[in-house]
Specification:
Layout (H helix, E strand, L loop, with lengths): L4 E9 L2 E10 L4 E8 L2 E5 L4 H12 L6 E6 L5 H7 L4 E8 L2 H8 L6 H6 L3 E5 L2 H6 L10 E6 L19 H8 L2 E11 L5 H10 L4 E9 L4 E11 L3
Parallel strand pairs: 5-6, 5-8, 6-7, 8-9
Antiparallel strand pairs: 1-2, 2-3, 3-4, 9-11, 10-11
Helix pairs in contact: 1-2, 6-7
Length: 236
């Protein structure tokens, strides 16, 4: 580990102490941005392929043009900026429950921030994605999206907050599906391997849903790591 470590921001949040920091990593000879919640590492710019694949795999499954996209979880911004690579995306709302995270991008603290906030298709919204899906009278109640891309929890089994758990039930997924257009797509990032139990629940609401394992080099271990992206197409 390099001694060059800079804390870019620290804020107390309802979920704990949130820290954004930057360090030079000699293994990759690059600046690495990291987010910690308390003592737990949430994300690192060392590992962005799966977040990018969440957008690619989700949007590849969408047909049509003039796409309306909802991204749940802003984080370091890699899912959102990858979605903007798709010229069919006409509008993208990115919702995050933490004002600090939105503030980081508005202050251009992260490598992709300028591109993200500078694109007129982008709207950063402060809110609880899970409450949006739960509340028929919420900000997204009347909206219909061609794609919903979600990267907030570690996995369907390991949530950052217990209030998120109801989304990963049949009823919760049905409420989410109601926010999709006909043949709209729900894509979900997970840090865990494909989960057969969750797949059974997901398949109840989205027949034909599939998990895609995304493998990537891990310079910290010298081996290969993997995440999962679930892709589910609504059928009317």
């Amino acid at each position: 580990m390099s001694s060059r470590l800079e804390e870019l921001d620290w804020q107390q949040t309802p979920m704990g102490e949130l820290t954004l920091r930057r360090r030079h990593d000699p293994l990759v000879d690059a600046e690495v941005y990291e987010v910690k919640l308390g003592d737990e590492y949430l994300m690192s710019s060392l590992f962005t392929l799966a977040e990018e694949e969440l957008a690619r795999l989700g949007l590849d499954a969408v047909t049509g043009e003039n796409l309306q996209v909802l991204v749940g979880g802003l984080g370091l911004g890699y899912t959102a900026v990858t979605a903007l690579d798709d010229a069919r995306v006409a509008s993208m709302t990115v919702v995050d429950a933490l004002p600090a995270v939105i503030d980081w991008h508005e202050r251009l603290l992260l490598p992709v921030s300028a591109r993200l906030v500078g694109d007129q298709r982008t709207h950063l919204a402060l809110g609880d994605f899970f409450a949006w899906m739960r509340d028929d009278a919420g900000p997204s109640a009347a909206a219909k999206y061609d794609a919903i891309l979600l990267d907030v929890d570690h996995s369907p089994r390991h949530q950052l907050d217990p209030s998120h758990a109801d989304l990963y039930t049949v009823e919760g997924l049905r409420r989410l599906r109601a926010h999709l257009t006909e043949n709209g797509v729900f894509a979900l990032w997970s840090d865990d391997p494909p989960d057969d139990e969750f797949m059974a629940v997901l398949g109840t609401v989205f027949p034909g849903a599939r998990p895609q394992v995304v493998r990537f080099d891990n310079p910290l271990t010298g081996g290969i790591s993997a995440n999962t992206v679930y892709v589910a197409v609504a059928e009317r």
